[in-house]
Amino acid sequence: MTTNRPELPPEIARRRTFAIISHPDAGKTTLTEKFLLFGGAIQMAGQVRAKGEARRTRSDFMKMEQDRGISVSASAMSFEYRDFRYNLVDTPGHSDFSEDTYRTLTAVDAAIMVIDGAKGVESQTRKLFEVCRLRDLPILTFCNKMDRESRDTFEIIDEIQENLAIDVAPASWPIGMGRDFIGAYDLLRDRLEIMDRADRNKVAETVKISGIDDPKLADHIPEAQLARLREEIEMARELLPAFDRKSFLEGHLTPIWFGSAINSFGVRELMDGIGDYGPEPQPQNTAGRQIEPEEKNVSGFVFKVQANMDPKHRDRVAFVRLASGHFERGMKLLHVRSKKPMAVSNPVLFLAADRELAEEAWAGDIIGIPNHGQLRIGDALTEGEALKFTGIPSFAPELLQSVRATDPMKAKHLEKALMQFAEEGAAKVFKPQIGSGFIVGVVGALQFEVLASRIELEYGIPVRFEASQFTSARWLAGPQDKVDAFANTNKQHMATDHDGDLVYLTRLQWDIDRVERDHPDLKLTATKEMMI
Predict the structure, then answer these.
(1) CA 228/CA 4 separation, integer angstroms
(2) Are 197 and 189 in contact (CB under 8 A)?
(3) Which stretch of DSSP H or E encloses residue 371?
(4) What is the spatial distance between Cα 510 and Cα 503, in angstroms, rounded to a whole number?
(5) What is the pLDDT of residue 55?
(6) How many Å apart are CA 388 and CA 378, to the nearest integer?
(7) Pick from 455, 361, 362: nearest CA to 405
(8) CA-CA distance, 293 to 134, in Å (whole number)?
(9) 147 half-sphere exposure, CB direction, 13 A CA radius
(10) In this model, does residue 312 exceed pLDDT 60?
């Protein structure tokens, strides 16, 4: 992230596009809800939790998510806060989520990592963090649930530094924890934040003070806690790096805030942090050149496709991250893969649970384009230039099962449903060259359940997933004659994916090693770029 770039037009410069990553139950959904509350997108957090609908927020809209209380599909929400326009891309937080999450991270400029104060860095967080690392995404950390018994502050910071190999600079410091948690000291602005336990939706009151030695602190903090706070802050200032924006933007350092999302505490400071220090919309890479956000021509790429968001209409919405320019409703854009122009007449913006027509959008924004299946993940939309955006991964599935409709008469319909999910990126669908039926591959076991319930709900086809004889899939590439010869002699292992690309299916690592050894011209890969 270079600092010698030209100044961006004010509309683009005020955009902040980010995702929240966390382990399940660290409090991501609550934090999202509070962001929307402070951004004025919803009136009162928790209002959506009527008795029968316990634990629902506005950002989870699929039926299964509502039944299970998890966010399965990543959706995008936009809201205004201070002078900034925030685009928050929600990532599925369940431990069995799909590669959807990884792809979501290609569409954002920064990430907020939510950590549970009692549990520290958990496995899922580590996985997601590594993806952020690959892309050098700046990361802001929020240590949540400080109003419950949590671990020692230094211990939490140490664990982040060791586990994730990143410097941690405290942006705030907690005062007490659990029942004794009274607030935090804002190290970046030298002020005291006091939590209101009585009203969960009330923003914490702040007390202006001049430094940690200000005698006014004694009016708000019990003596023993104050002595401890002063001692800890002195140690923190000696032992831990001070916040440095350049190092943060390069992905080497993460500022950490301590708070309690459910009590609305620490959330506003985090939101200020994203606005004041977070990155503006960043350049995007394509095969030929880098796209700068301030370029006049509009360009963008599809990073997610969501089918049937409105069960009454078989619609699909392609989520597009705008990479450059000023988009206006009704514009004709070139759909690079099909080389056809596309009039974008009803693009939508997502404001919490509501969609509204987007009259305009700027680089950095995320818009939804309803379509009937023309748009796929990885597609580019431009004002004429044939761009190919790079770095949108497609992973080889780790779990394979065969799928059949319980009613054989519905086999044709099932094929259509599966193709739709494949294009949406919800699963990989392979058609074996021998035998009937399809093999479905996913990254996490929960995906089979999600798919079965969606195929039944959205298409009315009850299906059965069964163990498949194969356990891994690899894409096959190489000189055409060699590929054809290999495919002919290994028919029982060959399949095609929904793009028609050849895939080698097997159950043994030994088979994969053998192919690599005996066929040096052929390449077996576990990922393929979502290229056109």
Answers:
(1) 43
(2) no
(3) strand 366-371
(4) 17
(5) 36
(6) 8
(7) 455
(8) 21
(9) 17
(10) no
pLDDT at residue 201 in the model: 63
- Asked if 18 and 108 count as a contact pair (C-beta separation under 8 A), the reply is yes
**Closest to 114 measured CA to CA, from 226, 230, 234, 19:** 19
Q: Name the residue type at position 112.
A: I
Helix (DSSP H) and strand (DSSP E) numbers for the chain:
13, 33
460 sits in the region (left: phi over 0; alpha: psi -120 to 50; else beta) called left
Cβ atoms of 210 and 190 closer than 8 Å: yes
Residues 186 and 207: their CA atoms lie apart, in Å, by 10
223 residue type, one letter: E
Which amino acid is located at 318 in the chain? A
- Condensed to tens digits (0 to 9), the pLDDT of residues 225-241 reads 899 999 999 999 999 99
136 backbone φψ class: left, alpha, beta (φ>0; ψ -120 to 50): left
Q: Is the pLDDT of residue 116 over 80?
A: yes
Q: What is the dihedral of CA 121, 125, 126, 127, to 10 degrees?
A: 160
Average pLDDT over residues 413-426: 83
38: CB partners within 8 A, 6+ apart: 81, 203, 267, 268, 271
Question: What separation, in Å, do the N-terminal and C-terminal C-alpha atoms of the chain show?
Answer: 27
Task: Look up residue 515 and give its amino acid.
Answer: V
Cα–Cα distance list, 290 to 136, 304, 365 (Å): 16, 21, 18
CA distance 189 to 192: 9
- Secondary structure class of 134 (helix, strand, coil): helix
3-state secondary structure of 367: strand
* Size of the chain in residues: 532
Mean pLDDT of 16-26: 84
Strands 139-144 and 253-258: parallel
User: If DSSP codes are grouped into helix, strand and coil, which group holds residue 174?
Assistant: strand
Whether 445 shows a pLDDT value over 50: the answer reads yes
The β-bridge relationship of strands 399-405 and 463-467 is antiparallel
pLDDT confidence of residue 311: 54
Q: How far apart are CA 449 and CA 62, in angstroms?
A: 13
* Dihedral, CA of residue 377, residue 428, residue 24 and residue 43, to nearest 10: 40
Exposed e or buried b per residue across 146-155, where buried means at least 16 C-beta atoms within 10 angstroms of its C-beta: bbeebbebee
Paired with 81 in beta bridges are: 84
Average pLDDT, the chain: 81
Distance of alpha carbon 420 from alpha carbon 502, whole angstroms: 19
Asked whether 33 and 60 are in contact (CB, 8 A), the reply is no
Whether the Cβ atoms of residue 365 and residue 15 lie closer than 8 Å to each other:
yes
Contact 253, 167 (CB under 8 A): yes
pLDDT at 15 over 70: yes
Which pLDDT score is estimated for 294?
Answer: 92
DSSP string for 220-256: TS-HHHHHHHHHHHHHHHHHSPPP-HHHHHTTSEEEE
Q: Is the pLDDT of residue 283 over 70?
A: yes
- pTM for this prediction: 0.75
